[in-house]
Amino acid sequence: MLRQVAISCLIAALALPALARTRPHYGGTLRVEVEGDPWQRPGGLARSLVLDGLTTMSPEGTAQPALAVEWKSENDDHRWQFRLRPGVHFHDGTSLNSSGVVASLTAVCGAACPWTAMHAVGSSVVFTSDSPIANLPELLAGDDYRIALAGAGNPETAPIGTGPFQFKGFSNGVITLAANDNCWQGRPFLDAVEMRIHRPIRDQWLDLSVGRADLVEVPAEQMRQAHDQRLTVVASPPALLLALAVSDTGALANPNLRAAIALSVDRSALSNVIFQKQGEITASLLPAEVTGYAFLFPTDRDLGKAHELRGGAAPPLLTLAVEGGAAMQLAAQRIALNLRDAGFNIQVAAAATPQHIDLTLRRFQLESNQPQPALESILRAAGLAVPVPQSTPEELYKIERQVLDTHMLIPLLYLPRAYGVGGRVRDLRLSLDGTPQLANVSLSDAQPEVTP
Fold first, then answer.
1. What is the pLDDT of residue 10?
2. Residue 311 and residue 314: Cα distance in Å, rounded?
3. Are strands 29-33 and 192-196 parallel, antiparallel or unpaired?
């Protein structure tokens, strides 16, 4: 199942260094096309270019300094102090300070933050918690906790950050981001990124083939087709968890019905038919290569047991909502068929519907290859604020087992993130969560910087 992804990654690893034989030059505009909203949280590409976090993840999956240069924990990880990097400015010239960080993080998560309280103390931000948060530096590297200037710009469509690119405008469906000459990380090679949004995948690929785009999306279910069309594809390891979030209210307050739903879904059909055998089938919240114990969670469908748990009584109509595009809609329809086979009465509705939602097909982003912060990030994104204080495989398995036994979150598939790359793009790499790292990208036809 992972063979195609591994081959894609190997091809990319071999091809990209060959593309980078010339010394990178400053200049040029990278043309990117995306199907969705590049400001969405998490995973929005524009967010990753404009906003920074207090920490960032190294390729090895450990937290490293970003807007914070150092940190320390006290009181058995109940108190953390992060010292800010001096001399950093937002794109409008405002200095980064601890009170601004507190305001930004408060606006992002409010009462749902991993910590209990947060305070500005001089040039540091202090986090305190009623329970230990041993992996706070890794959590703060997540996309949800990027820092924007509070009270300035539009936080949803034009945030002001400290990142390598700054928002310059939006016109005719194109977001323009300009290089931040004074970025604390150093100026990016590119002069600008033009991001065409809400662009259908077929149109993206056509633009790439005729030279109107440099970077386009390749959904997992279309990776084979992209290779058949001879696109240069860069793919991540499994980075997106496809899972079914199940309500524990109404008819589904009955745990037997939730368990019956978990046993009714045919993961193999989802993988083989909808997603073209990309990624891996899973009944675990984390990929097998991250924990080593994913095989302990069985993935097989058991329709007979599902009927037994349902008890013969026909439950009321259940509503299944779906987040995402065409492939997610098709996956939701197939899940609905699976549940009808088990005797459930299911209707599929849009995620934004005002009616009560019993089940939601969602995607969760894997933001670390370290199991402890990765598991806690997914649980928090799912609205299950379960602390993950231990890092041993035995303790992590115990926590995950307790969560999955409630059947309020049913893992289905892990999918890669992939992109088609034009011939003039140099030095493209993907982060752990599959996001393109455009700050280090250059263009082969860019003009060298002229020094007077």
1. 43
2. 9
3. parallel
Task: Identify the H or E element spanning 435.
Answer: none
Residue of 232 and 380 predicted with greater confidence: 232
- CA torsion sign for 38, 414, 400, 366 is negative
Residue 436 three-state SS: strand
HEC letters along 395-427:
HHHHHHHHHHCCCCEEEEEEECCEEEECCCEEC
Nearest C-alpha neighbor of 234 from the set 7, 2, 3, 1? 7
The token pair at 320 is: 């299944």
Query: First and final CA of the chain: distance in angstroms?
Result: 55
DSSP alpha helix (H) spans, 22-87: 45-50
Q: Which residue has the tokens 């980064």?
A: 96
Q: DSSP letter for 274, please.
A: I
Measure the CA–CA gap between 75 and 132, rounded to whole angstroms.
9
Confidence of residue 122 (pLDDT cuts 50, 70, 90): very high
Nearest to 50 by CA among 192, 245, 246: 192
Give pTM, 2 decimals. 0.86
For 405-445, what is each residue's pLDDT tens digit? 999 999 999 999 999 999 999 999 998 888 999 999 999 98
Residue 439 to residues 40, 148, 161, 204, 443: CA-CA distances in angstroms?
19, 18, 14, 22, 12
pLDDT of residue 408: 96
What is the distance between the alpha carbons of residues 95 and 329, in angstroms, rounded to a whole number?
A: 45
pLDDT per position as a tens digit, 260-294: 999 999 999 999 999 988 889 999 999 988 888 99
- 279 contacts 415 by C-beta, under 8 angstroms: yes
Owner of token pair 């909808």? 274
Q: Could you give the domains of the chain?
A: 3-16+27-47+164-237+419-443 (3.40.190.10), 52-145 (3.90.76.10), 240-415 (3.10.105.10)
- Helix pair 255-264, 326-341: axis angle to 10 deg: 110
Read off the pLDDT band of 352 (50, 70, 90): low
Query: What number of other Cβ atoms are within 10 A of residue 333's Cβ?
Result: 16
Q: Amino acid identity of 357?
A: I
